[in-house]
Amino acid sequence: MKRRIGIISPSVIPDDPCVPKQDDLLANTGWDVIAIGLPGHRSCPPGWRCLAVDEKLAIAADANYRLQLFLKACDRAIAEVDGARHVSRNEAVGSNSQLGD
C-alpha cells in the first residue's frame, strides 16, 4: 500500500507555481497525494487527486470567517477520501486550538 500524504493550501492548486511541483515530486517518489485548495483553476488538473473547497469560501470578506470555512471544508473533503483515517483538526492541533469550529 502506498504512503498517503495530504496537502492543504489556501490557493488554487493547479494554478499555484509551487504546490504542484512539490506534489509532483511526492507522487513521483511513491506517495499517494491528495491536495485540497480553492476552486476556479484554469490550468490542467494534476495527475494526483486535487479537491476544491466550497465556492463561497473564495468570496467571503472576513479573513477569520474564510479560515473557518476553509478548515471545515478541508475536514469534509478529508472525510470523503476513500480509506483515509480521518483525524479531526482538533485532534491534530490539540484541545488548546485558537482556530475554533
Describe this structure in words.
The protein contains four helices and three strands. By secondary structure, the protein is of the alpha/beta class. Residues 86-101 have low confidence and may be disordered.
Low-confidence stretches: 86-101
Radius of gyration using CA atoms only: 14 Å
Average pLDDT score: 74
Tell me the count of domains: 1
- How do the SSEs run, as a string of H and E? EHEEHHH
Structural class: alpha/beta
Query: What fraction of the residues are assigned to beta strands by DSSP?
Result: 15-25%
| Residues in helix, % | 25-40%
Shape: globular
Q: Could you give the order of strands across the largest sheet?
A: 1-2-3
Count of β-strands:
3
Helix count equals: 4
Distance between the termini: 33 Å
Report the sheet with the most strands, covering strand number, pairing sense and barrel closure.
Answer: 3 strands, parallel
Topology (SSEs and partners):
Blueprint: E1 3-8, H1 19-28, E2 31-37, E3 49-52, H2 56-59, H3 63-80, H4 89-93
Parallel strand pairs: 1-2, 2-3
Brief sketch in words of this structure:
The protein is α/β, with parallel strands linked by helices and 101 residues long. It has helices spanning 19-28, 56-59, 63-80, 89-93; strands spanning 3-8, 31-37, 49-52. The chain has a 3-stranded parallel sheet, sandwiched between helices.
